[in-house]
Amino acid sequence: MSIFVFGSNREGRHGAGAAKAALKFHGAVYGQAEGRQGNSYAIVTKELRKDQPPVTLEEVQRGVWVFLKYAADHPEVIFQVTPIGTGLAGFKPSEIAPMFKGASSNVLLPLGGMFMCLFVGWVWGFDKVKRALSNDGKLNNSRAITVFFTLVKYVTPLLVLLVLLDGLNII
Q1: Do the beta carbons of residue 54 and residue 44 sit within 8 Å?
Q2: Domains of the chain (ranges plus CATH)?
Q3: Long-range contacts for 160-168 (Cβ within 8 Å, ≥24 apart)?
Q4: 0.85 exceeded by the pTM?
Q5: In the predicted structure, residue 122 carries a pLDDT above the cut 70
Q6: What is the signed CA dihedral for 158, 145, 130, 128, rounded to 10 degrees?
């Protein structure tokens, strides 16, 4: 069994982003802000109401701790974590990613890795990668950079996608 883990708002109004996908495809419950819902699990990352304080990183961290405990208590389940809090909620991946340090082996974070590879390979591009990895041309490592770039652009996203599809029991 696979559970889709997504960022939610304090009211549980799953109207956009991964929350909307959780509602449409994974059994999320409209109005339930956190916890297990069908084949999904919500972690609060955003406040929609203007008269309420925004969700803090500390609040997200508490939600992640509760989730990680739940995941550890359910080793028979695979948890596919989306990049929670890094879209509509506005947190940086560098703020959220460390919260998952020490996650049990049934917690998979493939989407973030796949998106990073797609960004580096298709948006950032070969010239910027070459400049960064050759120390602005000071290192003579163009063959290694070409191999690295090919792996990042084509091979790694495909392999991560296969891991994701396997975790969702699609393949």
Answers
A1: no
A2: 1-108 (3.40.220.10), 110-171 (no CATH)
A3: 160/110, 160/113, 160/114, 160/117, 161/110, 161/114, 163/108, 163/110, 164/80, 164/108, 164/110, 164/111, 164/114, 167/2, 167/78, 167/80, 167/108, 167/110, 168/2, 168/78, 168/80
A4: no
A5: yes
A6: 10
